[in-house]
Amino acid sequence: MEPWLLLGVLAYLSYAISTSIDKRFMNRGYEPVSIQTFKDFFDCVILLIIGLLFFSLNFTFELFLWSLLLGFISAISGILYFTSLKLKDIEIVVPYLQSSTILLVFISSIILFSEIINPFNYIGLVLILIGVYAVLAKKGLGLPRLDRAILLISLLVVLTAAYLLLVKSLLFNIEPINLAISVYFSTTIILACYMLIFRRKQKGSFDIRNSKIAVSAIFGSMGTLFLFYALSLGFASRVYPVAGLQSVFVFIIASIFLRERFYWHRLAGTIIVFLGILFISL
Considering only CA atoms, which of 281, 277, 257 is closest in space to residue 269? Predict the structure, then answer.
């Protein structure tokens, strides 16, 4: 297995675990902005410790400016992501988000980075579209109902694709660990300012000392680190499709551990998405 592929698998396994823990917070009615702010802070601290211990860190003013832009996109995306989890089951949100983002990033990578595709890649695109439809359709037949959650996820897809493409372009000249720490730091500052300005208060009994948010942060930060290093080693059109694995991991975790309602056609849709990812990766 090539290094970029192994790192990609580890990245999206970590993201799947973190996402599943996030869903538990949403099920208990916690305020999404607070959750995202605390998580990004913990992520920044975790990666900073790792960087100080095992890497040579180098932060420049140019990196700071780019991280502000990425941090702003990440902050808005985080709010949309958690809000979507409150409105839809996790096995709907993540497969749709990942699959649609992959499609958009795949096409954009061809245009922006002049990456070469083959006939198998087109087959993968078709399979992903079919899989997304199956995951979204509540009863397996008929068109999925357009509601607030779907609109939010669609906006999140655009923002996520823009974020990922910008990250890929920056990794040509910036070390992944430096970029990851800077982005998490900027996102934390932006979200904290948002909470201060709008005086957002937490709901429920959420406590920053809650061990679950620390566990979620650990997996989330490691997922980002693995993904950034995978992107520094491989092509965007090859690395991003590995995100399809997250849909598979999340579906299994949500069905077994979160005990969310199970639909066979959603399982089929997730598998089809996964097959589409395999074809795109060829």
Answer: 277
